[in-house]
Amino acid sequence: MILHEFMDFEVLRVIWWALLGVLLIGFALADGFDLGVGTLLPFVARTDLERRVAINTVGPVWEGNQVWFILGGGAIFAAWPPLYAVSFSGFYMAMFLILAALILRPVGFKYRSKRESETWRSAWDWALFVGGFVPALVFGVAVGNVLQGVPFRLTEDLMPIYEGGFFGLLNPYALLAGLVSVSMLVMHGAAWLVFKSEGLVADRAREFGVYAAFATIATYALAGLWLAAGVDAYAFTGAVAPDGPSNPLMSEVARGGSWMAAYAERPWIVVAPVMAFLGAALAVLGFRARREGWTMLASKLSITGIIASVGLTMFPFILPSSIDPNSSLTVWDSSSSHLTLFVMLVSAVIFMPLILLYTAWVYKVLWGKVTARDVMDSSDSVY
Amino acid sequence: MELDIVELSRLQFALTAMFHFLFVPLTLGLSVIVAIMETVYVMTNRPIWRQMTKFWATLFGINFVLGVATGITMEFQFGMNWAYYSHYVGDIFGAPLAIEGLMAFFLEATFVGLMFFGWDKLSKVTHCVVTWLVAIGSNFSALWILIANGWMQNPVGAVFNPVTMRMEMTSFFDVMFNHVAQAKFVHTVSAGYVTASVFVLGVSAWYLIKGRHEALAKRSIAVAASFGLASALSVVVLGDESGYSATHSQKMKLAAVEGMWDTYKAPAPFKLVGIPDQEARETKYAVQIPVAMGLLGTRSLTEEMRGINDLVIEAEARILNGILAYDALMDIRAAKGAATPEQIARFEDHSADLGYALLLKRYVDDPREATTEQIAMAAEDTIPGVLPLFWAFRVMVGLGFMFIGVMLFFFIRANFYGMRFPRWSLWAAVFAIPTPWIAAEAGWFVAEFGRQPWTVDGVLPTALSVSHLSVTQVALTLAGFVTFYSVLFIIEMGLMLKYIRKGPFMDVAETEAWNRRHNERLSGRTSQQPAE
């Protein structure tokens, strides 16, 4: 195949960096409200019927939503193999927690209402809470650690060696990032519940949504200030070839300076944090004004801004190493080969639009509120 | 045996993969069977078929969700426990996994929700299309997973890059149309169809024994027996194709499966039974069918099939050649990006056997310093455990032929004896329910255990593929998975049995009434529109 030679390696790398962001944002927008609803479940819905209403708002779509996560993992594996190898083995116990939570969740959705027993149902309700809250928190904690650099190094054979433990991940800055993530996903889940349900569930969700949107603004602002003042950035010290071979050890990196330098270098990226704040503020207004559709959009805007701001601030760094900065993974030295990136781009160009199209159709078919009446009418077939 | 990180990681992968594979075959087959039933419903408009569709779809759903949940583990385990593998072959191996997500998994997961929640929201035909999309999605899923797995068995279309220290793709076409992957795909999918057919047959037989839901059970048997007969025939024929494709790409696996220590004069005999002895390097008490193996393996009477002993000698030669490749690789690395064309040419001359030199890493840090003894040991390592392979294969094949018999019997009874089944045959069908799972797991075992000591045949040894983790970490997650999965399995079986005992949730009269209401609602919706 020679076709791939028509696209520069460098360009493909930037495209796949952007696509990685698109997939993460896609995951947060689609699966994010499921996680938020899971986290809110014990609080916004008290009776069994209320809980079934809340669960059935995400019932038909969580499976598709979760694929964003699977696809994200697959795309990291295919397009950024060193990132996949380092992060998944490095964040070992954290990944296990996420896995356990994400396995609990599908099973909880599917099996909860298949038995009448109260203990059975309440056990699954807590499983759904854990399945929503734990991933939401851990994803944020992971991002908080990535921003600070992660204690790994690569041997000359490019074998990743991770030298921190699980509890090292739970440092104050990372926990703050975890709170940002929980706040924004709870905001998103509340926006979804307000959009898809009515009555008490929606009223309670509205209240939580306002708090969560305020919390998103506060924690995100705090995390930003802290990033500017107290977190070291990483930078190349020597020349680096954007189309060079994918061997991180061939470039030199030093720790120091501030990530905020990126905003002086590329002032346009300020658009991301602006979206983050603006979206959350609009969400507050939307919740209060009972404009459900707009609230949902505002929440999406905020989440997109928050996730994009991390990537844009760190570019071209993807996963800096705190103990051996030269091992840091960047856009220029940790991608797949030229051919693989091209093949993957072709498949993404073919299938992503199709996916968006049929996902939109499914949401259209399922349009409208889920009511207590719906759940009672088809008690046997819904969750 | 002391459990080191490699053994623990293998154990974890084997357990989680085999657990995942309890749900996959049924998903593959039952999705198609449900889609067939719904198609009959759409074409005949008879409510009993709708009831059947919904009943089997409920069981499908209980099974499907665990397939999805345990599949997440598979996708992430490569990075968690097999980091060096992920780095070393991610450039090739990651692509089919990601495409699986894009092309197949998104499709099935997005529509499966609508399949369960869309009955009231979609027209009959649209709902049927949705069900088919779920079935197609799951089957495409299997295709891409097996392309990835096929590459581990027969790594085509890739070459080692000494600068990035990994395998890189040279031809996506070769990876996709890898003959091993294609043979595996059709074999695995057929096995899934057989599994679901035996399942539907067994559950229906139980209803007939109990005298419940006879209309549903008899029709289900008719579908399962015809679909199952075709699938059982194809699983055996295509399994033979899968074996044939191993003749050229994985000689050692084939020789081990056959307990074939020495190279026979062509055509080789087939050992029906026997007890392979790895120490003595012979297969005791063998009962042989002359000529059969040569015929099956090479489809000729003259082509020779190498025995294990000769393959070990061959491996030793490849290790020596691999050491030269390793030496050249170290030269290139020392040159720090300024390697001379001679150095690169020297590497390329020997690079096909680099993986064989890496086998020595178990014994010595620098393969160039290996002693003759260590080289002999590494060559010996290329023999997988012969006894378990020999028998797992025979269990699988034996069951395969049994499925043909069972399906043929029920097919004939259903079509030519007016759906009258002797009671003993119904009980036999009930007790046959677990057998396709045994066959599927045995087949999986033959394919993956037979690949040892490699993760990627001839390219990367298993011992080198793992992550840099502590034994405690892996033991902890292993214990976690075992506990967690056991609980899930008990819950799943409990629900399965509950819903089988409960039977279809509407009787035919109720379904008809529902059907009428549904039609009224749909026509009401369309007639309202012009008025607005």
TrEMBL record, chain A:
<keyword id="KW-0349">Heme</keyword>
<dbReference type="Pfam" id="PF02322">
    <property type="entry name" value="Cyt_bd_oxida_II"/>
</dbReference>
<feature type="transmembrane region" description="Helical">
    <location>
        <begin position="170"/>
        <end position="195"/>
    </location>
</feature>
<dbReference type="GO" id="GO:0046872">
    <property type="term" value="F:metal ion binding"/>
</dbReference>
<keyword id="KW-0408">Iron</keyword>
<protein>
    <submittedName>
        <fullName>Cytochrome bd-I ubiquinol oxidase subunit 2 apoprotein</fullName>
    </submittedName>
</protein>
<dbReference type="GO" id="GO:0016682">
    <property type="term" value="F:oxidoreductase activity, acting on diphenols and related substances as donors, oxygen as acceptor"/>
</dbReference>
<feature type="transmembrane region" description="Helical">
    <location>
        <begin position="301"/>
        <end position="319"/>
    </location>
</feature>
<feature type="transmembrane region" description="Helical">
    <location>
        <begin position="126"/>
        <end position="150"/>
    </location>
</feature>
<keyword id="KW-0479">Metal-binding</keyword>
<dbReference type="GO" id="GO:0019646">
    <property type="term" value="P:aerobic electron transport chain"/>
</dbReference>
<keyword id="KW-0249">Electron transport</keyword>
<feature type="transmembrane region" description="Helical">
    <location>
        <begin position="207"/>
        <end position="229"/>
    </location>
</feature>
<feature type="transmembrane region" description="Helical">
    <location>
        <begin position="268"/>
        <end position="289"/>
    </location>
</feature>
<keyword id="KW-1003">Cell membrane</keyword>
<dbReference type="GO" id="GO:0009055">
    <property type="term" value="F:electron transfer activity"/>
</dbReference>
<feature type="transmembrane region" description="Helical">
    <location>
        <begin position="83"/>
        <end position="105"/>
    </location>
</feature>
<dbReference type="InterPro" id="IPR003317">
    <property type="entry name" value="Cyt-d_oxidase_su2"/>
</dbReference>
<feature type="transmembrane region" description="Helical">
    <location>
        <begin position="339"/>
        <end position="363"/>
    </location>
</feature>
<keyword id="KW-0813">Transport</keyword>
<keyword id="KW-1133">Transmembrane helix</keyword>
<comment type="similarity">
    <text>Belongs to the cytochrome ubiquinol oxidase subunit 2 family.</text>
</comment>
TrEMBL record, chain B:
<feature type="transmembrane region" description="Helical">
    <location>
        <begin position="467"/>
        <end position="491"/>
    </location>
</feature>
<dbReference type="GO" id="GO:0016682">
    <property type="term" value="F:oxidoreductase activity, acting on diphenols and related substances as donors, oxygen as acceptor"/>
</dbReference>
<feature type="transmembrane region" description="Helical">
    <location>
        <begin position="221"/>
        <end position="239"/>
    </location>
</feature>
<keyword id="KW-0813">Transport</keyword>
<feature type="transmembrane region" description="Helical">
    <location>
        <begin position="20"/>
        <end position="43"/>
    </location>
</feature>
<keyword id="KW-0997">Cell inner membrane</keyword>
<keyword id="KW-0479">Metal-binding</keyword>
<keyword id="KW-0472">Membrane</keyword>
<dbReference type="GO" id="GO:0009055">
    <property type="term" value="F:electron transfer activity"/>
</dbReference>
<comment type="similarity">
    <text>Belongs to the cytochrome ubiquinol oxidase subunit 1 family.</text>
</comment>
<dbReference type="GO" id="GO:0019646">
    <property type="term" value="P:aerobic electron transport chain"/>
</dbReference>
<keyword id="KW-0249">Electron transport</keyword>
<keyword id="KW-0349">Heme</keyword>
<feature type="transmembrane region" description="Helical">
    <location>
        <begin position="391"/>
        <end position="412"/>
    </location>
</feature>
<dbReference type="GO" id="GO:0020037">
    <property type="term" value="F:heme binding"/>
</dbReference>
<feature type="transmembrane region" description="Helical">
    <location>
        <begin position="424"/>
        <end position="447"/>
    </location>
</feature>
<feature type="transmembrane region" description="Helical">
    <location>
        <begin position="92"/>
        <end position="117"/>
    </location>
</feature>
<keyword id="KW-1003">Cell membrane</keyword>
<dbReference type="Pfam" id="PF01654">
    <property type="entry name" value="Cyt_bd_oxida_I"/>
</dbReference>
<keyword id="KW-1133">Transmembrane helix</keyword>
<keyword id="KW-0812">Transmembrane</keyword>
<feature type="transmembrane region" description="Helical">
    <location>
        <begin position="185"/>
        <end position="209"/>
    </location>
</feature>
